[in-house]
């Protein structure tokens, strides 16, 4: 290629470069043509948002989301509520020096005076109760203790078959056998599971528990040691007397003014209230 043509091509290239560079914006003009980048969208607010604002001399303004505030309030309330006020269904770990209505429930189940204070007497009787049911004698209400305690309260039974006196064990057996026969029909002169009269029922239950009773309610009354109502324990016998002092009915004391009995035709074996004060208690 001739030198002149080469120079002409070179000059054209230089002009084109200059023109193109002149068309491009420079400095502030360049900034106007740049594509603006939008700031990232703000993230979701945190549970507690602290914003440092100059409010009243530079005080910090704290904003709390409503859901978190209510949750925090609930948590604080639950934590501040004494265990003695928690529900029985929550099975609280009650122990020495706790107070409240749930402590009263425990004391009633343990046949103690319900003053609502978990004192030394409550600890002592609870340990005895735990031992009698084969539980670890901790003196406080863990989940296993609650399970047995609610069952005992429902069935009016205190001590189980382990680690207690033979009399307590026998009475516990009596109550278990009595409850098994719930719904058995009344039958005059009946002494079997096909039907019971009052003394036939008590005689059958006591035989199952390990002791034999005479046949009639009067004979059973004569065969027992007579005790006061205050001294009576669930599993003892309760006798009903007429105005002349004669015995006409017998049942098994279930505690709390209740008894298991087979009362009359058309009414099956059940647990009911002691309906009169003319009663006597007997222990085998």
TrEMBL record:
<keyword id="KW-0645">Protease</keyword>
<dbReference type="InterPro" id="IPR036366">
    <property type="entry name" value="PGBDSf"/>
</dbReference>
<protein>
    <submittedName>
        <fullName>Cell wall-associated NlpC family hydrolase</fullName>
    </submittedName>
</protein>
<keyword id="KW-0378">Hydrolase</keyword>
<dbReference type="InterPro" id="IPR036365">
    <property type="entry name" value="PGBD-like_sf"/>
</dbReference>
<dbReference type="InterPro" id="IPR038765">
    <property type="entry name" value="Papain-like_cys_pep_sf"/>
</dbReference>
<dbReference type="InterPro" id="IPR000064">
    <property type="entry name" value="NLP_P60_dom"/>
</dbReference>
<dbReference type="InterPro" id="IPR051202">
    <property type="entry name" value="Peptidase_C40"/>
</dbReference>
<dbReference type="Pfam" id="PF00877">
    <property type="entry name" value="NLPC_P60"/>
</dbReference>
<keyword id="KW-0788">Thiol protease</keyword>
<dbReference type="Pfam" id="PF01471">
    <property type="entry name" value="PG_binding_1"/>
</dbReference>
<feature type="region of interest" description="Disordered">
    <location>
        <begin position="1"/>
        <end position="24"/>
    </location>
</feature>
<feature type="domain" description="NlpC/P60">
    <location>
        <begin position="168"/>
        <end position="284"/>
    </location>
</feature>
<dbReference type="InterPro" id="IPR002477">
    <property type="entry name" value="Peptidoglycan-bd-like"/>
</dbReference>
<dbReference type="GO" id="GO:0006508">
    <property type="term" value="P:proteolysis"/>
</dbReference>
<comment type="similarity">
    <text>Belongs to the peptidase C40 family.</text>
</comment>
<dbReference type="GO" id="GO:0008234">
    <property type="term" value="F:cysteine-type peptidase activity"/>
</dbReference>
């Amino acid at each position: 290629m001739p030198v002149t043509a080469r120079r002409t091509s070179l000059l054209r290239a230089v002009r084109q470069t200059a023109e193109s560079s002149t068309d491009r914006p420079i400095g502030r003009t360049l900034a106007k043509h740049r594509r603006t980048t939008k700031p990232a969208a703000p993230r979701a607010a945190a549970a507690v948002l602290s914003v440092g604002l100059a409010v009243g001399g530079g005080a910090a303004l704290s904003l709390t989301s409503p859901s978190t505030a209510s949750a925090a309030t609930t948590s604080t309330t639950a934590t501040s509520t004494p265990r003695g006020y928690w529900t029985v269904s929550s099975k609280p770990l009650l122990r020495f020096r706790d107070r409240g209505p749930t402590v009263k429930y425990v004391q009633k189940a343990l046949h103690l005076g319900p003053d609502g204070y978990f004192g030394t007497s409550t600890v002592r009787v609870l340990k005895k109760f735990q031992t009698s049911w084969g539980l670890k004698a901790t003196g406080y209400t863990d989940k296993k203790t609650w399970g047995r305690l609610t069952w005992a309260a429902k069935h009016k039974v205190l001590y189980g078959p382990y680690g207690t006196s033979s009399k307590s064990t026998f009475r516990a057996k009596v109550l278990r056998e009595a409850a098994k026969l719930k719904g058995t029909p009344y039958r005059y002169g009946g002494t079997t599971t096909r039907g019971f009269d009052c003394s036939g029922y008590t005689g059958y239950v006591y035989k199952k528990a390990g002791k034999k009773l005479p046949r009639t309610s009067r004979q059973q009354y004569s065969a027992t040691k007579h005790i006061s109502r205050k001294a009576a324990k669930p599993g003892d016998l309760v006798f009903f007397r007429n105005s002349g002092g004669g015995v006409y009915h017998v049942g098994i004391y279930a505690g709390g003014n209740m008894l298991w009995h087979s009362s009359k035709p058309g009414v099956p074996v059940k647990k009911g209230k002691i309906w009169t004060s003319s009663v006597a208690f007997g222990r085998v």
